[in-house]
Specification:
- With 272 residues, the chain is α+β, with helices and mostly antiparallel strands.
- The chain has helices at 2-14, 19-26, 34-46, 66-74, 88-110, 160-175, 192-196, 216-229, 242-246, 259-265; strands spanning 50-56, 59-64, 118-126, 131-139, 149-154, 177-180, 188-191, 207-211, 237-241, 252-255.
- Strands 3-4-5-8-9-10 form a 6-stranded mixed beta sheet, with helices on both faces. Strands 1-2 form a two-stranded antiparallel sheet.
- Helix 2 (19-26) packs across helix 3 (34-46) and helix 6 (160-175) crosses helix 8 (216-229).
- The radius of gyration is 20 Å and the shape is globular.
- The protein starts with a helix and ends in a 7-residue tail after the last helix.
Length: 272
């Protein structure tokens, strides 16, 4: 029964996972509990709380059903969070391997320690400019200057140019400012993100980019190319490969937070 409850909670956090990944969190670290988890998942499927809609290689990909999400919400098993899908549509659309890689990234970064502090597919949008993108995972782990950490996972399926654009989107988001003040007054401008999104942060949250999906030497080449493509970016960006992250190796800093430079790059909004 406990294995089933733990599996539900994990899927409520990461949305998509394989039995291997769930066993990594749910069972004892020195044991291989995949058979226990597999039986638990089959029982949850019989109860209509979980389902599988595809595979990552030979491994079935599991996600909650709407009934499973309601069961978690009714039992107050997770912190309140925005309404999210079950993950089924992503698997059916062919994004299952990417979701599994995101889960691997989450487990490599904090494992079971921070599991309930993650949200996946978190939208960041500014209606005025039309900028809108989804962050693969956001970790609520407050520091003295920032309330969250942002994570992007590249599974080796996008072009280098598109990957660089996705990283630059974070600077565009961080650089947008809004004007505040009563009509006819001087007023002031403020960063959009600080006023409307990460209100408890003093600095724009650090972006972590994790590279996966290719042989390790190719990931290293991709890391170097990304560092070149985002040279001079004015937000904090750290990058790593998934194999290095899983081995506990350090991150590479390829971008530094620089609010003054951002302010020079992006035009001030016009007052009312």
């Amino acid at each position: 029964m406990k294995v089933r409850a733990d599996a539900l909670r994990m899927l409520g956090c990461v949305r998509i996972a394989t039995v291997r990944q769930m066993a990594q969190v749910i069972t004892k670290e020195e044991s291989d509990g995949r058979s226990y988890v597999r039986r638990a998942m089959n029982k949850l499927a019989e109860l209509g709380l979980a389902e599988t809609n595809g595979k990552d290689g030979k491994h079935q990909i599991w996600n909650l059903t709407p009934a499973g999400q309601r069961a978690l919400a009714d039992g107050n098993e997770l912190p309140p969070r925005p309404k999210a899908g079950t993950g089924a549509k992503a698997v059916l659309a062919g994004f299952g391997p990417h979701g599994v890689a995101v889960t691997d990234m989450i487990l490599a970064y904090g494992g079971r320690k921070y599991l309930t502090d993650w949200q996946v597919e978190v939208n960041h949008a500014i209606k005025e400019t039309g900028l809108s993108f989804n962050t693969d995972a956001v970790l609520a782990l407050p520091t003295k200057t920032s309330e969250v950490r942002l994570f992007e996972l590249d599974n080796g399926t996008m072009s280098q140019a598109r990957l660089a654009k996705e990283v630059w989107d974070y600077e565009r988001y961080a650089g947008h400012r809004v004007w505040e003040g009563a009509r006819g007054t001087n007023g002031r401008t403020f960063p959009f993100w600080q006023r409307h999104r990460y209100t408890r942060s003093q600095t724009f949250p650090r972006l972590h980019v994790v590279l996966a999906g290719k042989e390790e030497h190719l990931l290293d080449n991709r890391l170097q190319a990304l560092a070149h493509d985002v040279q001079g970016i004015a937000v904090a960006v750290w990058v790593n490969t998934l194999p290095r992250l899983q081995r506990g190796e350090p991150w590479y800093e390829i971008g530094v937070d620089d609010p003054d430079r951002r302010r020079r790059r992006y035009p001030e909004p016009v007052g009312r």
